[in-house]
Design goal:
Strands 8-1-13-5-6-7-9 form a seven-stranded antiparallel sheet, with no helix packed on it. By secondary structure, it is mostly beta strands.
Length: 273
């Protein structure tokens, strides 16, 4: 049985409105691969979902969804933010596979898993645009931003809206920047999520009357009983990062709780059927 998850109630926020612009197209050298992707990856069914929204907001979802937990479709974190204050760009960063541990330094992306960054521009919590990423033969291929062929749990690769591609990194980070100002990355990164998992268990178990511990010195390697310990320190995830001009996202009528115009966004993983 396949369990299908969509975490609508976690959707909150997003970034500023901007002017529409043209989509960037990849080079002719990618055309054969695009045809192969279209032929082999017609239909994907959503397995995991994680949502967030806002100027600098973070959502973490380590091993939450039973159907995708511990698999290559498992979403660990989703980050979206302006790279600098007042920037006209937005960064979307998705971490997959939170079980890539120090003794397994470099995991791999699954060619049967389609990642979709969903963007709502009219405040109805239905995706109006998607940015997709799917790996093939050591490269990560990106598509969008474009209106999806269908909304909801199923989808197909939007091969007619190529955004660009980048070699999947290993020890050395590889970043590809397109002529339209889009920067792309795919590869292993240390898990950015700080969480004292063992203290959390004590808190919810009622054995920690003082609650959570304060953060310690980030430059210190000495553990003590007084400060929090990052359980994820040294663990890796498989990261997919897109920095994109806001002009490619178009305008938005969405608003956050403060009445500011924002994009609302969430991420899903979809497995080939």
């Amino acid at each position: 049985m396949i369990w299908i998850f969509r975490i609508w109630n976690k959707i909150k926020f997003f970034l500023r409105k901007n002017e529409p612009s043209l989509f960037y197209c990849v080079s002719k050298g990618d055309s054969n691969l695009k045809k192969e992707i279209m032929k082999k990856s017609k239909l994907f069914m959503g397995l995991g979902a994680l949502a967030l929204v806002g100027g600098l907001l973070v959502a973490a979802d380590h091993i939450d969804a039973p159907s995708s937990m511990g698999t290559t479709a498992d979403i660990a974190d989703f980050y979206a933010f302006e790279p600098t204050e007042g920037s006209d760009n937005t960064v979307f960063a998705v971490d997959l596979q939170s079980n890539v541990l120090p003794d397994l330094a470099y995991g791999t992306f699954d060619e049967n898993v389609l990642l979709e960054i969903n963007i709502d521009t009219d405040n109805d919590l239905v995706e109006d645009l998607v940015i997709q990423a799917i790996p093939r033969d050591g490269k990560m291929y990106f598509f969008g931003p474009v209106a999806p062929s269908e909304t909801g749990l199923n989808g197909s690769v939007m091969v007619d809206a190529p955004l660009g591609s980048v070699d999947i990194s290993a020890e050395t980070a590889i970043v590809e920047t397109t002529d339209s100002g889009v920067s792309l990355f795919a590869g292993p990164r240390q898990d950015a999520f700080f969480f004292d998992f063992f203290q959390f268990n004590e808190v919810i178990g009622g054995t920690a009357p003082l609650g959570f511990k304060p953060a310690g010195d980030p430059d210190s390697t000495d553990d003590d009983d007084e400060t929090a310990v990052d359980t994820f320190d040294g663990a890796n995830t498989m990261a997919i990062v897109v920095e994109i001009p806001n002009s490619l996202l178009g305008t938005t009528t969405g608003q956050n709780a403060l009445g500011l115009e924002v994009y609302k966004t969430w991420v899903t993983t979809n497995v080939k059927q």
